[in-house]
Amino acid sequence: MKQDLIIILDLGSTQNTVAAREIRELGVYSEIHPHDITAEELKLFDNVKGIVLNGGENRIVDGAPVEIRPELYELGIPMISIDYPQSRCEMQLDALPDRDAWKRFIFETCRAEANWNMKNFIADQTELIRQQVGDRKVLLALSGGVDSSVVAAMLIKAIGKQLVCVHVNHGLMRKDESESVVKVFRDELHANLIYVDAAERFLGKLAGVADPEQKRKIIGGEFIRVFEEEARKLEGIDFLGQGTIYPDIIESGTKTAKMVKSHHNVGGLPKDLKFELVEPLKQLFKDEVRACGVELGLPHDMVYRQPFPGPGLGVRCLGAITRDRLEAVRESDAILREEFARAGLDKKVWQYFTVVPDFKSVGMKNNARVFEYMVIIRAINTVDAMTASVEKVDWDVLETITGRVLSEVENVNRVCYDMSPKPPATIEFE
Ligand code: XMP
User: Fold this and answer.
1) Cβ(307) – ligand 1 distance below 6 Å
2) Strand pairing class (368-381; 351-355)
3) 150 and 247 housed in the same domain
4) Can you give the pLDDT at residue 255?
5) Which of 13, 34, 151, 194 has its CA 20 to 30 Å from the CA of residue 300?
6) Distance separating alpha carbons of residues 164 and 192, to the nearest angstrom
7) pLDDT of residue 1
8) In terms of domains, do 370 and 398 share one?
9) 42: CA distance to ligand 1 center in Å?
């Protein structure tokens, strides 16, 4: 990549990603690397304009503080040290700089140019993808989530019909979701798209299974089997496209802090299906992935959608999944999303959805006793999904949603609002 680069060396700070994002927001590309990077490795990037020595609370590893290799001071690259006393640096600070101090370091001390933007990124990646893939073919599991959609759009731009997308509809998608994948990718972007309607197959496997872990295992395992069956029908595929993003990489590989989570991808594919990976988003943070999607022409709704779990509505139709309750989840979720959008809450609330438990309660409809399901509404805000607070949804909006659910959704006679923060409740119910 030709853009100027500021390297952040992880010397035990918990703020590495914050720093990287602040630098990128100033229009300069930044990457985080381990503290023990060698001068040789640094020289492989021919465009490093500055180095941030980012110390902090995790600096002591195995009883001793970690240090950078002294050879790095000989490179003549400007350095700033943060919470890492080092007189050989051009700037020394106790805490992360404010915007002005960042600007002074990046533009005055390092003389970096603000040439990091999505247009340049897409142009670079398009070139790199073409170099990597040549005239061969790439396979991509296109779920319709933000990351896989943006990867698809990027690969379509770079290699067009050499990309084969497989969309597996597991029957647990939200209302109209699979339809919109087909509309956007097949009809508008002219992608080579294989649509697999596997709803019956998934529901069959899930019949009578009430344990949440078991449900997740079945959905994940079956997904890989369906995808693998499609892959085996195709010929001459050498690559697998993946929506790996930057946090996946740094969270699974720091040498100072404990591992946050292991990087999980479509890693469950059988060993004899040998693919090389194409991961064009692996340098981007989530908000940059969205900006990239917009720049590539994807619809706003597809790019700015709220997070949706891989097992889909399967974990919101609580207990053993039945068709009537699955429909009640799907329909009530669609109503909730419509009304949140009407009230402008879709831009304010981080995640909102409905669940339908597997028990009934007594009610009255048309002067007769009914015994039907309930819909529970959940609307939460969070920064990192580790903790969450409940959105104080306006009473009138809740009344409108309740009225619509009770009149439009079959088999439902009651609507509740979940008041529980995380912890102790998790965001999802299963
Ligand atoms: P919990 O329920 O653990 O959820 O508080 C935290 C966030 O993770 C999402 N979630 C998932 N996302 N696959 C995903 O891709 C999953 O299996 C899964 N389970 C939970 C959840 O929606 C929330 O945003």
Assistant:
1) yes
2) antiparallel
3) yes
4) 79
5) 194
6) 5
7) 59
8) yes
9) 37
Helical segments of 279-422, H only: 286-295, 300-303, 323-342, 395-408
The C-alpha atoms of residue 8 and residue 20 are separated, in whole angstroms, by 7
306 lines ligand 1 (CB under 6 A): no
- Helix (H) or strand (E) segment spanning residue 154: helix 146-159
Q: Which pLDDT belongs to residue 87?
A: 87
Residue 377 CA, chain-centre distance (Å), reads 23
| DSSP 8-state symbol, 235 | -
pTM of the shown model = 0.90
Domain annotation covers residue 296: yes
Check pocket membership of 427 for ligand 1, CB cut-off 6 A. yes
Which pLDDT does position 268 carry in this prediction? 59
Q: What are the structure tokens assigned to 242, written together?
A: 């993946």
Cα 98 to ligand 1 centre (Å): 33
Contact 112, 28 (CB under 8 A): yes
Same domain membership, residue 281 and residue 244? yes
Total structural domains within the chain:
3
**Which of 55, 88, 109 represents a domain boundary (last residue)?**
109
pLDDT value at residue 252: 65
DSSP E strands: which ranges in 232-341?
A: 237-241, 276-278
Residues near 397 by beta carbon (within 8 Å), at least 6 away in sequence: 339, 340, 343, 345
Q: Which residues of the chain, if any, have pLDDT below 50?
A: 260-266
Considering 84, 109, 134, which residue would you say is the last residue of a domain?
Answer: 109
Q: Do residues 247 and 299 both lie within one domain? A: yes
CA 8 to chain centre: 23
In a 10 Å sphere around its CB, with 0-12 CB exposed, 13-18 middle and 19+ buried, how is residue 28 labelled?
A: buried
Asked if 100 and 107 count as a contact pair (C-beta separation under 8 A), the reply is no
| Domain span at 401 | 322-417
Question: Are 226 and 127 within one domain?
Answer: yes
Same domain, 137 and 239: yes
- Give the position of tokens 């390092």: 110
CB of 386 closer than 6 angstroms to any ligand 1 atom: no
Q: Which helix (H) or strand (E) holds 22?
A: helix 16-25
